[in-house]
Write a structure and sequence with these properties.
mainly alpha, Arc Repressor Mutant, subunit A, three-stranded antiparallel beta sheet, 6 helices
């Protein structure tokens, strides 16, 4: 698996790394069950910070493109090809947009919506979730 990262690009490094791993999965360069390098090894190979690679791996695992099996390592998820096309950020944005539209249709002002959103987020964080 060849990974190319452009440190001068505007796109964040972790995002580039995610895209490269997804590209390798999509092209068949790596397949379900294939092992990926450890965070430390990949960071060293690409001359990146460990935290950058860890963030990319964390987001790829959240999206079920990869799976970490403790000390055994990190592997391509069995359903990686199907899962890599789902963009959680797009989905969240769409859901929030629908809610905002519904609130505006009922007459809520942007200020009321912002206050309600902030209160909901603060209560969630205060509850430790």
């Amino acid at each position: 698996m060849e990974i190319v990262i452009d440190i001068d690009a505007e796109e964040p490094l972790f995002s580039q790394l995610m895209a490269e791993i997804k590209r390798a999965v999509g092209s068949g360069g790596i397949g379900p069950g294939d092992a990926l390098p450890s965070i430390r090894q990949l960071a060293n190979d690409l001359n990146l910070n460990n935290k950058t690679v860890a963030k990319a791996y964390q987001l790829l695992e959240r999206d079920k493109v990869i799976v970490t099996k403790g000390y055994r390592g990190t592997f391509v998820h069995p359903d990686a090809r199907e899962n890599m096309n789902f963009d959680l950020n797009d989905w969240v944005t769409s859901q929030i947009q629908q809610t905002i539209t519904a609130c505006r249709d009922r007459g809520a002002t942007d200020s009321e919506i912002r206050i309600a959103f902030a209160n909901i987020m603060q209560n969630k964080l205060a509850a430790g979730e």
